[in-house]
Amino acid sequence: MTRRDLFLLVFSLILAGVVGGLIGDIVGHYLPDGALKTLFQKNIPLGFDAASVNFYVISLTFGFKVAINFMSVLFMILVLIYFRWWYI
C-alpha cells in the first residue's frame, strides 16, 4: 500500500463518518419514536473537552471530540470493504 493509498483510505474513512452521521441524524429525525429512532440518533461522544491555557499575551485552547452513531460506523465498514476489495 502506497502513501497515496493510505491517505485516500484515511480521507475516505473520515468522509464516510461525516456523511454517515449526517444521514443517520436525518433519517432518525423522520422516524417515529421507538428503538429504530434511538438506533439512528444515539451518538457516542469520544474525545476530551476543551482545555485552556491562558498566558498574559496569548490564550491557547485545545480540544477534540467526535460523535459516532450507527450510520457512521456502517459507512466506515462499507469503505473498508471497498478498499479491501479494490486496493488491498
Architecture overview:
The protein is of the alpha+beta class and 88 residues long. The protein has one domain (3-86). It contains 3 helices and 2 strands, in the order H-H-E-E-H. A two-stranded antiparallel sheet has the order 1-2. Helix 1 (3-30) packs antiparallel against helix 2 and helix 1 (3-30) packs antiparallel against helix 3 (70-86). The mean pLDDT is 90.
- Gross geometry: flat
Characterize the biggest β-sheet.
Answer: 2 strands, antiparallel
Mean pLDDT, all residues: 90
Tally of alpha and pi helices: 3
Widest sheet: strand order? 1-2
Rg from alpha-carbon coordinates: 18 Å
The sequence of SSEs as H and E is HHEEH
Domain unit count: 1
Structural class: alpha+beta
Distance between the termini: 7 Å
Extract low-pLDDT stretches: none
Proportion of residues in β-strands: 15-25%
- Tally of DSSP β-strands: 2
Helix content: 55-70%
Main attributes of the structure:
single chain; 88 residues; alpha+beta; two-stranded antiparallel sheet; 3 helices; flat
Q: How do the helices and strands line up, and which of them pair or pack?
A:
Elements: H1 3-30, H2 35-41, E1 44-54, E2 59-68, H3 70-86
Antiparallel strand pairs: 1-2
Helix pairs in contact: 1-2, 1-3
Short précis:
The chain is an alpha+beta fold and 88 residues long. Helix content is 59%, strand content 24%.
